[in-house]
Design a protein that fits this description.
By secondary structure, the protein is of the alpha/beta class. The chain has a single domain, classed as Alpha-Beta Barrel (TIM Barrel), CATH 3.20.20. It is built from 16 helices and eleven strands. Strands 1-4-5-8-9-10-11 form a seven-stranded parallel beta sheet. A two-stranded antiparallel sheet has the order 2-3. Strand 6 and strand 7 form a beta hairpin. It is globular and about 60 Å long. The two termini are about 25 Å apart. The mean pLDDT is about 95. The structure holds coproporphyrinogen III (CP3). The site of coproporphyrinogen III (CP3) has 21 residues, from strand 3.
Length: about 350
């Protein structure tokens, strides 16, 4: 058994009773924190920070120094996998991710290697081991990856996209070629998440940020199918505990029943779903994580507290809820509003347990 001092988060993901609802915040380490901006400045740029285990460890712990969070999340990025495949990830200030090498032909896809984490991404397990040591059992550590579909969107589009024109053209004109890419990414993600678990990640989340831009049939074919293979390929027992798997498809609220069928332990919800209705649909089969609209953090402490109360009330009594935002916290947010969110979840949720 691990010596966790606070295991609310892991217990809630496994639908076990807790004393209060656990909370963490997607992108909890990031540019809304002045100490993060200062540390990134010192590192030079974002990727240097990710690739330096000591720096990644420091930044992972920053939000835990400020807020009473129930989990830490590895500081890294989903795009480390395409970077390790040789695409050359870089970030232009304020412009989002870009790749030095574009994926343009069938040959480009056929030539892509499958990632071996130990040799291609050693800085990630190194950071995890260091963070576990520094956390010393205070809260569990979350590892993560992008979904194959979401990673493929960045690789095929060459960066962020509004209409996903290139990858959708490939999906409908040459689905077999896209499948070759998605299969390579699936094997890479399985290796990557198993390496994170072996290094000490105590739960893992798959970010399917762009699954929601697909039709129902295309979501099954190009995203969910591969996430199900990943869930089946993970070593979800470590240190005498289950390592819960959370699937987060932004815009995926219409597909909860089929996401449950992957065998994941928990589903992340964006803010477009009503928490109570989602709970009624999934029943006791999975836990739910979410789902405050991150825009609410731009309002006031009073509004944050009242909106937190509404989501807790909508979920209702009993186990299986991890509080979070419906998507990542944005750089313009006042950290005091995040503090108000975390404290409100703990104080207002006691009566439901
Ligand atoms: O949650 C955490 O605190 C852990 C760290 C984390 C980052 N990225 C740090 C980051 C996590 C879990 C991610 C995941 C990620 N990265 C996703 C999935 C989650 C989501 O938001 O939907 C996606 C799509 C990416 C790809 C990515 N990385 C983009 C589009 C960008 C630019 C975004 C922007 O706001 O400019 C990044 C960069 C990035 N990843 C930053 C951070 C803190 C900002 C980089 C900086 O410091 O300049």
């Amino acid at each position: 058994m691990s010596d966790l001092k606070n295991d609310r988060f892991l217990r809630a993901l496994l639908r076990q009773p807790v004393d209060a609802t656990p909370v963490w915040v997607m992108r909890q380490a990031g540019r809304y924190l002045p100490e993060y901006r200062a540390r990134r400045e010192r590192a030079g740029d974002f990727m240097s920070l990710c690739q330096n285990p000591q720096g990644a460890c420091e930044v992972t712990l920053q939000p835990l120094e400020r807020f009473d969070l129930d989990a830490a999340i590895l500081f890294s990025d989903i795009l480390t996998i395409p970077d390790a495949m040789g695409l050359g990830l870089y970030f232009d200030q304020g412009e989002g991710p870009k790749f030095r090498k574009a994926i343009e032909s069938a040959k480009d896809i056929e030539d892509l290697p499958i990632v071996n984490t130990a040799s291609d991404l050693p800085y990630v397990p190194d950071a995890i081991r260091l963070i576990r040591r520094e956390l010393n059992g205070r809260v569990p550590l979350i590892g993560f990856s992008g979904s194959p579909w979401t990673l493929a969107t960045y690789m095929i589009e060459g960066g962020s996209s509004k209409d996903f024109a290139k990858i959708k053209t490939m999906a409908y004109s040459n689905p077999d070629l896209l499948a070759v890419l998605l299969e390579k990414l699936t094997l890479s993600v399985i290796d990557y998440l198993n390496a994170q678990i072996a290094a000490g990640a105590q739960a893992v989340q798959i970010f399917d940020t762009w699954g929601g831009v697909l039709s129902t049939a295309a979501f099954q074919q190009f995203s969910l199918k591969y996430m199900a293979q990943i869930v089946a390929g993970l070593n979800t027992e470590a240190e005498g505990r289950t390592v819960p798997v959370i699937l987060f498809t932004k815009g995926g609220g219409g597909w909860l029943e089929s996401v449950v069928a992957t065998g994941c332990h928990a589903i992340g919800l964006d803010w477009t779903q009503d928490m109570g209705e989602a709970r009624a649909r999934v029943g006791d089969r999975v836990a739910l994580q979410g789902n405050l609209d991150p825009a609410i953090l731009r309002s006031s402490v009073q509004v944050v507290e009242s909106e937190v109360g509404k989501i807790l009330g909508s979920y209702g009594s009993g186990e299986g809820h991890v509080f979070n935002l419906g998507h990542g916290v944005t750089p313009d947010i006042d950290p005091r509003h995040v503090a108000a969110l975390v404290d409100a979840v703990h104080s207002l949720s006691v009566k439901y347990h």
